[in-house]
Write a structure and sequence with these properties.
The protein is an alpha/beta fold and 453 residues long. The protein has helices at residues 9-21, 90-104, 142-152, 172-178, 199-207, 220-229, 268-278, 293-298, 314-323, 350-364, 400-409, 416-433, 437-446, and strands at residues 2-8, 26-28, 32-36, 43-47, 50-56, 58-60, 83-85, 107-117, 129-133, 189-193, 212-217, 235-239, 253-259, 279-290, 327-331, 377-383. Residues 190-283 form the Methyltransferase domain. Pfam families: Methyltransf_25.
């Protein structure tokens, strides 16, 4: 067996000495003027809890996460997958190839090429290597809650934000304005799923004294603060893993609320099905969360083959709602549309980050009625009594290329200054990844309809 390794001609001269020095068994093939992407041997990646997939060769640097951290796959499982170097960390590429050679005993066939043609077909083929990437369910607020719980228990909730704890504000007034008017009668049962420190839950209990209100939270530290801070007679805080089914009867919940929490549910479709089953026929679900589209949009081409699977994608929730006869209305984030450095997985230069913050502050002042992926969060309202607007927000298919085509294609609907900023960030991301002309061309071919840089 051999491992076919395709290398652009302008990179071949630099990579060859490093491959030889690493002692990787190899032989050199005749150069190809054109590499047809349609014929490459690929692996098929699916993602836990997300209706998304991608078929890809070992395209470096885009799929290196397959070999890192909790996603790491044994190298021998990558047999019969073609390797394609498109730029970036040459030492990292050679190291991965050497590890693969040791694990499989395969010889590397080094194939220089000048340019690309075609695109990688996305439908899986029988016998291809398939792996499901596990979902990251780490709650990034937990460390803050543990560190600050003693301080938080002794001060008024309106002061929590000044004590450096994360996600401490209340969404109750927004829920009253945007969700409650769609209920035909006052809610009898209210559930806050992923209630955190309990501020929103407690305010809902005060606003609806005749309702039974439940805050469901997994964090012991958050529950300790919530129980010490709020004692409304109609309010109960319970420990609950957000990935598990709700302990309520079918149709029992009139108003269900979740703020920045459901991204941690391991199986998004299963959680959505359970939630909509527990919602009363005239009930409403207020779901505010970070949307994976912002990663797809701002961090392209880092995001080429890798969805941000610890955020939500609205198709999953809208589809599950529709199966229950519910509409979905997607709205822009309601408290802030500002982008900050913590919004991103990959670093931007200080100049670009400052420019992006200026753009987001300007966007914050505009009257925005529809969600666009230049903001990180969105609000999903699910109910029979809301007007559905999801047709314009659905990506058109679960393949990664289709999702990116939809998301990146929304660039033209944004203000000019946001369009300029997006193109600047894409070019900077591509440069920081070390992509050359061939790597940029691969990105354009991967996204259905192409993409601008």
């Amino acid at each position: 067996m051999i491992t076919r390794v395709y290398i652009p001609m302008d990179e071949y001269v630099d990579l060859l000495p490093a491959i030889l020095e690493a002692g990787i068994p190899n032989h050199k093939a005749r150069p190809r003027p054109v590499l047809d992407l349609c014929g490459l041997r690929c692996m098929f990646l699916t993602f836990e809890g997300v209706d998304a997939y991608v078929r890809t060769p070992f395209a470096f640097p885009f799929v290196i996460s397959v070999l890192r951290g909790e996603f790491r796959q044994p190298m021998h499982r990558l047999e019969e997958v073609d390797w394609l170097y498109l730029g970036g960390d040459k030492a990292g590429f050679v190291s991965a190839l050497a590890e693969h050679a040791r694990a499989t005993g395969e010889e590397a066939e080094l194939i220089p090429f000048r340019e690309l043609s075609g695109a990688v077909p996305q439908q899986p083929r029988e016998g291809e290597f398939h792996v499901t990437i596990p979902r990251n369910t780490v709650n990034y607020n937990e460390n803050s809650w543990v560190k600050n719980k003693d301080v938080l228990s002794g001060v008024p909730p309106e002061s929590w934000g000044r004590k450096t704890a994360n996600n401490t504000g209340s969404y109750a007034r927004l829920i009253e304005r945007l969700a409650v008017p769609h209920l035909p009668r006052p809610p009898r049962v209210i559930v806050d799923l992923g209630s955190g420190l309990g501020y929103t839950t407690a305010e809902l209990a005060r606003l609806h004294p005749e309702a039974r209100v439940f805050g469901l939270e997994l964090s012991d530290s958050a529950l300790e603060v919530a129980r010490a801070s709020f004692d409304e007679p109609n309010l109960t805080f319970l420990k609950h893993d957000i990935s598990e089914p709700l302990d309520f009867g079918e149709g029992a919940i009139d108003l269900l609320v979740s703020v920045n929490a459901l991204a941690y549910a391991r199986d998004q479709k299963r959680s959505a099905d359970d939630i909509f089953a527990k919602l009363s026929p005239d009930g409403i679900f207020f779901n505010h969360s970070r949307i994976g589209y912002s990663h797809d949009f701002w961090e392209f081409p880092y995001s080429l083959v890798w969805p941000l699977i610890f955020q939500i994608y609205p198709e999953t929730w809208a589809g599950a709602a529709s199966e229950r006869g519910l509409n979905t209305r997607m709205l822009p984030p309601q408290l802030s549309r500002r982008l900050t450095p913590w919004s991103f997985m990959h670093p931007m230069s200080q100049g670009t980050m400052r420019a992006l913050e200026r753009c987001s502050l300007r966007y914050q002042e505009e009257d925005v009625a529809e969600y666009l992926p230049c903001t990180t969060h969105a609000l999903l309202l699910h109910s029979r009594h809301v007007e559905d607007n999801m047709e314009s927000h659905l990506s058109g298919g679960p393949s990664r290329g289709e999702t990116l085509a939809h998301c990146l294609g929304l660039l033209s609907e944004m203000p000019d200054y946001m369009q300029d900023m997006a193109l600047r960030s894409r070019r900077e991301n591509a440069k920081s990844m070390g992509l050359g002309d061939v790597g940029m061309d691969y990105c354009r071919r991967f996204v259905a309809g192409g993409v601008a840089f």
